[in-house]
Amino acid sequence: MDATQANARAFVVTNRSVLAIAVPMTLAYLTTPLLGIVDTAVVGQFGDAALLGGLAAGALIFDVVFTTFNFLRSGTTGLVAQAFGRGDELEEQAVFWRAVLIAVVAGIVFAALAPLVAVAGQWFMGAEPRVSEAIGVYVRIRLLAAPFTLTNYAILGYVLGRGEGGLGLMLQGVLNGINIVLCIVLGLELGWGVTGVAWATVTGEFLAMLLGLAIVARRFRAAPRLPRHRILDVTAFRHMLSLNRDIMIRSFSLLAAFALFTRQGAQFGTVTLAANAVLMNFFLIAGYFLDGFATAAEQLAGRAIGARAAAPFHRAVRLTLFWGFGLAGAATLVLLTGGAGLVALVTTSQDVRAVADTYLPWAAFTALSGVLAFQMDGVFIGATWSRDMRNMMLLSFLAFSAALLALAPAFGNNGLWASLHVFLLVRGFSLLAILRLRVRTAF
């Protein structure tokens, strides 16, 4: 064990080690907005803005529920990365099974509450009747995947905590690849529309979960045997729940901001709601480019904290930020030059195309305004400084709400998009200010 711990502390962060995690995970994360674009494109082929708006609003409600539980991915990543940095194989296993236990219990509860969640979402969105009907159909079906989705979060968190970007890419590729194929077959070829898109996701999540559990279980059989009592260690569970609570509040605040964004867009009319839905997919594409390097920051910063190695920590922060800004600039240029063509591919509605083209530049620049926020999130997740993440996210949400109240009434949809940029900038710079204080005591 002493030799293992010494080797764990000896690691060096290089451009290669950053890219070995970031590149495959960027590709993996890009399959998620690609799935969103395919979902939107499939429903968009029916030429009905109400169905498109209903899908967008339903997907948002789903994200509010499930991204709130994204701590099962990010919290697991940070804890596994730190155990990996210490060379503690048993704790890596224990963290994983604790996360799976939470995932199964929470998933069953959410699946049972699907009808209530759908009704609450319909009420919150306050959209026209046909949009509201599509929302209800989508949410009721898709929430049946709750236990599978949350378990997949735990599996991915474990894989990324060990810095295995290639395996993470494979798992995400299988998950979203199955979703995309079934979405086209069920939603478009069979004409099921929104219903087909929802059932495609349920099936994809289930099959991906089976594959992930098989891979991890096979690995654990070759590792030291984990005593069952260690999984249920009260102190460790309390620490994990405390970490997860803060990340959950942070994630819920993030989704609340996106929910307010979508709801305000709905107040501008069905066509504007649909156009913003198309552009938000492009925002997610830019975000998932950045998430690859944020994931590298999570693993490398967490590993450095576990090994108590200051030099690798500082280098991980610098290199992931450098690469993040480079990709953010590239993503912005791609969307500025080719975004109109992508809009035309996603929807056949001429009205939606015209509105989306008008506001395309706002979506294109979200990458640059959000790069620091994404990268700082990665550092703080890996270091498990969850309280700071929670507090700075709440501050950012307040800034977003104030900007929304001031700008949306005066400038319409332009003010809405400007408020989103305020939100991203406040998140990034507030965490950067806190980072300097935390580093002084971490090592």
Automatic annotation (TrEMBL):
GO terms for cellular component: plasma membrane. It comes from the Bacteria. The chain crosses the membrane at residues 18-38, 50-72, 95-121, 141-161, 173-192, 198-220, 247-266, 278-300, 321-347, 359-380, 392-411, 417-437. InterPro entries: DinF-like, MATE_fam. Keywords: Membrane, Transmembrane, Transmembrane helix. Pfam families: MatE (PF01554). GO terms for molecular function: antiporter activity; xenobiotic transmembrane transporter activity. It is found in: Membrane. It is a multi-pass membrane protein. Belongs to the multi antimicrobial extrusion (MATE) (TC 2.A.66.1) family. This is DNA-damage-inducible protein. The lineage of its organism: Bacteria, Pseudomonadati, Pseudomonadota, Alphaproteobacteria, Hyphomicrobiales.
